[in-house]
Specification:
Order of helices and strands: HHHHHHHHHHHHHH
Strand content: under 5%
CATH superfamily: MetI-like
CATH class: Mainly Alpha
Number of domains: 1
Largest sheet: none
Helix content: over 70%
Shape: globular
CATH architecture: Orthogonal Bundle
Structural class: mainly alpha
Radius of gyration: 24 Å
Length: 314
């Protein structure tokens, strides 16, 4: 496992460095001049130039990148151009909301996908398989903003079972935390469950055709034991890879879902920064999210190596 970790880190570190170049490039492609925006429409050229010098925008690009990257390595993403608050502190305040949403969404996705995928694979060609396949297709086809709005309309506004908006920290009220996150998590988890169900069904169906599974059944082992103890572990390896991609999907999809349910997460922070052309906040959120996704995928690779010894020795 140590050799696998070293090999994966050898790929991960250059990816993060490349991502930092691309994120810093936002400074060049975002329309408008932050100095002019901060100075206001009636500012003089001297005032604009003073702000530009204060922000270091008149330095060469490579100097600006080196300064920004050096601070970012130390966890300092700078300050907001408008509020003056530390970007790192703003991310830290909103990160628990987004991570809570992603975590609960993943749990919801697995609770749906694992039973549906197993049943569809065991009863391939039956109505259960057809139902799971059609459900997965619908889950992939429904836009998250539409599904979220429909869930809020039915279960929050009409039935009153769950709150339509807002967030309660886990430490203050665990039940309220879960109630506020359930509808957003179901919205995000539906698409993730659909893709995972399809992958698990396909993988498990192939494994169930292997000779060792037939042998296990021939010696009299119960079908449930054969599937859960022997077949499912081997079938789960491709699913683990898919789950790594789902993490990136959940973090990206949370931007929209957080707006639908008014959750104070990273999505709202990023959208506000884009509207305000607050470059330090945009760069901080994008780079932090990129590093988070890369590290989670690194953990997924290690988990895959644990499940598949051939990967560790490759």
């Amino acid at each position: 496992m140590l050799q696998l970790l070293i090999r994966r880190l050898a790929f991960t570190i250059p990816i993060i460095v490349l991502a930092s170049f691309l994120v810093f490039g936002l400074l060049l492609i975002v329309p408008g001049d932050p100095a002019i925006t901060l100075a206001g429409d009636n500012a003089t050229e001297e005032q604009i130039e003073a702000i530009r010098q204060q922000l270091g925008l008149d330095d060469p690009i490579i100097v600006q990148y080196a300064r920004w990257a050096g601070d970012a390595v130390q966890g300092d993403f700078g300050d907001s151009l408008y509020s003056g608050r530390s970007v790192t502190k703003s991310i830290g305040e909103r990160l628990p909301v987004t991570m809570s949403l992603a975590l609960v969404s993943m749990v919801v996705a697995l609770m749906i996908a694992i039973p549906a995928g197993i049943i569809a694979a065991i009863r391939r060609g039956t109505w259960a398989d057809t139902t799971a396949t059609v459900g997965a297709s619908l889950g992939l086809a429904m836009p998250s903003f539409w599904l979220g709005a429909m869930l809020a309309l039915v279960f929050a506004l009409r039935l009153g079972w769950f709150p339509a908006t807002g967030y309660v920290p886990l430490g203050e009220d665990p039940v309220g935390w879960l109630r506020h996150l359930f509808l957003p998590a179901l919205t995000l988890g539906t698409a993730a469950a659909a893709e995972t169900t399809r992958q698990l069904r396909s993988s498990l169906s192939d494994v169930l055709q292997q000779d060792y599974v037939r042998t296990a059944r021939a010696v009299g082992l119960r079908n449930r034991v054969v599937v859960l103890k022997y077949a499912l572990k081997n079938a789960s390896m491709p699913v683990v890879t898919v789950l790594g991609f789902q993490v990136a999907f959940l973090l990206g999809g949370s931007v929209i879902v957080e707006q639908v349910f008014a959750l104070p997460g990273l999505g709202g922070l990023a959208i506000r920064a884009v509207l305000d052309r607050d470059i330090p906040v945009i760069q901080g959120v994008v780079l932090f999210t990129t590093v988070l996704v890369v590290m989670i995928n690194l953990l997924v690779d290690l988990l895959y190596g644990w499940l598949n010894p051939k990967v560790r020795s490759a």
